[in-house]
Write a structure and sequence with these properties.
This protein is 19% helix and 36% strand. It has 2 helices and 15 strands. Strands 1, 2, 3, 4, 5, 10 and 13 form a 7-stranded antiparallel sheet that branches. Strands 6, 7, 14 and 15 form a 4-stranded antiparallel sheet that branches. The chain has a two-stranded antiparallel sheet with strand order 8-9. Strand 3 and strand 4 form a beta hairpin.
């Protein structure tokens, strides 16, 4: 697909290893610069690495580690980027048997607007057996995960930026006028059911 710029926006990739397999989560951040600088990318990468360290590490098993946080400007083709790896890898601290790699807890990003284009997902990885009862994440654990994701929103706004959903398409085709962004206002657990991602079983 041809590159389509998204003004003022940085794509943040969390590169992780789960039970020996590479995995990734992603969020987009919109700032004040129409063309984000390398310095801005570096601030975003470092800040979000700090969020993972403070909010995620204590809630996931030792089989999950964070290898790199990469922040890439998508406002221009071949734009600046920065990676944060100081002190990495960060390894989960729960020393319990891990669930299979396909098991994740889905947190929904909400924007206050209707439509699939105005929603997103974060797949929380690294669940351990004591966190799950039958097919459901323990309610206390689910609440702690949602609170951690709310803290990601707070971390981003704390560096004078905003977490966003980027929508490239509408009605089955590219948006007229280019991509749009929707401001993420809330993290929500629709239910506590463990979600399966079959690709991670390979």
């Amino acid at each position: 697909m041809a590159f389509v710029p998204v003004p003022a926006t940085i794509r943040v990739n969390f590169f992780q290893t789960l039970n020996g397999q590479p995995t990734m989560n992603r969020i987009h951040v919109r700032g004040a610069e129409s063309l984000p600088s390398q310095g801005s990318c570096a601030v975003v990468a470092a800040s979000l690495a700090g969020w993972w360290d403070t909010n995620v590490q204590a809630l996931v098993g030792t089989g999950l580690s964070l290898r790199e946080v990469q922040a890439v400007s998508i406002a221009e083709q071949n734009g600046p980027q920065a990676s944060f790896t100081a002190g990495f890898p960060l390894v989960g601290t729960l020393d319990n048997p891990m669930l299979p790699g396909n098991c994740a807890f889905c947190v929904s990003w909400r924007t206050g607007l209707t439509g699939r284009s105005a929603r997103g997902r974060w797949y929380w990885q690294g669940l351990v057996e004591p966190q799950v009862v039958d097919n459901n994440v323990d309610e206390g654990v689910a609440a702690a995960i949602v609170a951690a994701m709310d803290n990601l929103i707070t971390t981003i706004t704390g560096i004078s930026a905003f977490p966003v959903i980027v929508s490239y398409n509408s009605g089955g085709g590219p948006r007229v006028g280019g991509p749009v962004t929707f401001l993420i206002t809330d993290a929500l657990a629709v239910d506590t059911v463990v979600d399966s991602q079959r690709g991670r079983l390979h």
